[in-house]
Amino acid sequence: MGFWDIFVVALMPVLKVLIITGIGLVLALDCVNLLGPNARHYLNELVFYVFSPALVCSYLAETITLESLEELWFMPVNILLTFVIGSFLAWIVNIIARTPQHLRGLVMGCCAAGNLGNLLLIIIPAICDESDSPFGDSSTCTTNGDTYTSLSMSIGVIYIWSYVYVIIRISANKGTGTSDENGSSIKSSGQTSETRAESTTEPLLHSITLEEGSDPVDSSITEPEGKETFLQRIRKKAKMRTCGIDLRMLLTPITIAAIIGFVIGIVSPIRDVLIGDDAPLRFIESSIYLVGEALIPSQTLIVGANLLRGLRRSEVSVVMILGIVLVKYIAMPIIGVGVVKAASHFGLVGSDPLFQFVLMLQFALPPAMSVGTITQLFGAGEAECSVVMLWTYAMAAFSLTLWSTFFIWLVA
């Protein structure tokens, strides 16, 4: 394939993302108001609790086997490297931009966590469906692509809610100088609960309860003052060793669905009953997949609607935005090429060009939308996050196309 052919293949999925995102932005305008705060809230709940788990579970159940796990083991390592390298580069950005304390976690989250979910679910199938796709037969390419994107989404969710959640919480606490006994930042009295509810962009706000002034570790045990039970000491030590990570953050619906999908795919008797044209209960998997197909358009519409908030706020450092853009779209992709090529040289990733393409693309994706949700949880940097999302996703239209073209040429 020539350069122009590769460029067109890489451009098609980005144009689809832009069109659907633009529709979401228009639907969120006050004059239309079909995706206002309440509509986004309820659609977010459907995406998070229904569509995403259904798609991840059906994809993993159909495509994951013990043999494929042996081939895909490097992907969790690759995603971990994107978080580690992105955090280090974000630390440099914070120093150069003199980022305020309460926004440093936001910068680290945006640089570390990429949109490993819905963008890949659009880009990979679109490339596979192209007649000139460099990744071979459309059916095989789509099947393998579904496996890679489902695993990417599942691993990404775990990393985001076990790492980005913690660093943004710590940053918010240091910025405000106050925290409750759970380590969660206490919002200032000037911000009402109504304002917070209207800014909700993802349903996790309703699945997490931050009770100010109460400690769930001690709430179930009442002892005389000055005394501490053995069970309390054990719980406190466990809390310290996990660095305050709320394990409920890891058990999101997507994570649970991923576990179920892994079990179905790996355990042969269960797989034979549910998966395949001759499976007696194949209608169950087909129904779940049908529900999950609503994820891609719904989540992309929400992305566009949420970006509208960024148009209405501009109180954010230009240097900070420029630093995040340079990290996400120049430094990280270049490093990603080096990482994947080194892994390929040492025989860690196999010879599948599509797998190598996905690994490289994970270094070039815009920030995860879940970062916005986490900033809302602690009331630190919500408006700034909207501005960052607006500019990074606008730049992604050009960056993703160019890097996808280069990655395809490199692996194919």
From TrEMBL:
One GO term under biological process is:
endoplasmic reticulum to cytosol auxin transport
Q: Where in the cell is it found?
A: Endoplasmic reticulum membrane
Which stretches does UniProt call biased (Polar residues)?
176-202
Membrane topology is: Multi-pass membrane protein
Q: Which InterPro entries match?
A: Mem_transp_PIN-like (IPR004776), PILS1/3/4/5/7 (IPR045033)
- List UniProt keywords, sorted A-Z: Auxin signaling pathway, Endoplasmic reticulum, Membrane, Transmembrane, Transmembrane helix, Transport
Chief place where the protein resides: endoplasmic reticulum
Name the domain of life this protein comes from. Answer: Eukaryota
Q: Could you state one GO cellular component term attached to this entry?
A: endoplasmic reticulum membrane
Pfam families per the record? Mem_trans
Per the record, the similarity remark reads: Belongs to the auxin efflux carrier (TC 2.A.69.2) family.
Q: PANTHER family, alphabetically? A: PROTEIN PIN-LIKES 1-LIKE, PTHR31651
Which protein are we looking at?
Protein PIN-LIKES 3-like
Source organism of the structure: Rhodamnia argentea
